[in-house]
Predict the 3D structure of the following.
Amino acid sequence: MRKRFDFLVVGSGLAGLTYALKVSNYGSVGIISKTKLEESNTLYAQGGIAAVTNEHDTYQKHIEDTLIAGDGLCDEKVVKMVVAEAPERIKELIAWGANFDKKKDGNYDLAREGGHSEKRILHHKDNTGQEIQRALIQQIKQNNKIEILDHHFAIDLITQHHLGLHVIRYQTDIDCYGIYALNIRNQSVNTILAKTVFLATGGIGNIYHTTTNPVIASGDGIAMVYRAKGMIENMEFVQFHPTSLYNQGERPSFLITEAIRGFGAKLITKEGKEFMHKYDKRESLAPRDIVARAIDNEMKLSGDDFVYLDCTHLDEKELKSHFPNIYSKCKSVGIDITKNYIPVVPAAHYVCGGVKVNADGQSSINNLYAAGEVTSTGLHGANRLASNSLLEAVVYSHRAAINSISKIGNIEFNENVPDWNDEGTSHNEEMILITQGFKELQQIMTNYVGIVRSNLRLKRAIDRLEIIYNETEKLFEQSTVSLKLCELRNAINVSYIIIKMAKNRRESRGLHFTIDYPEKYKLID
Ligand code: FAD
Ligand code: SIN
């Protein structure tokens, strides 16, 4: 089947949904999403969205906090722009129906998270993402100009390559004509032509064994751009959230929001001793890279599988009312957070790098825009400040919408695009080969490309990855295309890029810490 859209949106998290709403008055819009519309990293966001919304705070402070967290690699112009545009984008979310908690005096109940010098996080209880998704999906479903293609999986971007034309890596004249998408319900591959494609496919958490990300996060968008020879950067900066619930066998790991530390919870060892003062004077509210490394170090020193988060000294009523989901989730596994310590471990959470885009969300591939976690905009540098990613998604979706609307009148569909070629393939793949491939990949990335790295570990990782890469590519060539096989292939591509970029960075910086260059990180005497 062939379809045509002026604006084709791939992904239905915050970035994809807000872009679709904004362009819907200017042409036909299709949203494809690989499972149900709601499922996304956005849905699980707890802490909230950072923005300067009251007179105690200033843009300058938000800018400085972002730059400090980014450890010298943020693009200052981008940081200033995102911080300044934040309040307008928040107003839009509210106008679309998203609710953020307020205090009795009518002002927003702002929370504080690691690396923030002020309380500036707007939130809805401890399920902000769910509230935002609810409001946006309601808007999308009421909008008859937007066609929803859920349970459709984007396999590859269509470029000159598919027309038999030769393109050179990183050349700037690569054009995007649409995507090939697998309809999961009937297993057919559709050719979806588009004047512009907007990539909003989110993150990569599932290349690691322990992650807060749902299974959809297999780096598909980044892998597609990599195969299409588009520019990707900063992939070595993978953020591990310091505190996911230690509950063996549960995948994804349940997040214990940083906002609970902003509320007064303390990290302690199994022996009940505080330890963060040894690592940073901001203690439990230091930026995430520092806290995650500190926990990792404490676990290595003690041999324990987790550390604890202590909330027992906090006001019981307030704790339950601010964090109702955490309270009930922990209760369901036998932990009463008002009385018991919460066992926590770091978990892969967010990728700071991705598809390189300019200030208008344009990638290096013509007519391909991107926003959200799939991108590298320059906002996060070497480490993302908490609650800056929902913000980045809305700011860049807005900018990409304005730019693509201004260009759409001058772009034609490319009718020469051939349909998907599955010659020589058959239904011969065994599921065990794919599930085992994923497990091996997650072991490699967790053991060798985690919070602490070394040249030797990275070399081991690349050597072992090569084996599963070759096996999986062969399987892909021989097999009828399937969701799980495509995800594995993408996850392997993305892991390869992370390892390559990590090997090239010959220093410890932000989220990339290697024992071969340890000088920046000393314990406080
Ligand atoms: P997502 O919301 O991940 O959406 C990606 C979409 O793309 C999904 O619909 C998916 O199905 C679709 N997709 C992917 N691949 C394909 C494909 N091949 N074909 C078709 N569709 C595809 N950030 C904050 O700022 N504040 C927070 O409080 C916060 N809390 C978080 C808590 C958790 C547990 C997690 C996991 C993340 C949190 N983050 C938070 C990060 C933030 O949620 C994400 O970075 C952000 O939501 C990403 O939005 P997105 O639109 O780019 O991608
Ligand atoms: C959290 O609530 O701790 C997650 C916030 C984020 O990832 O920005």
Q: What stands out?
A: The radius of gyration is 22 Å. The chain has a mean pLDDT of 95.
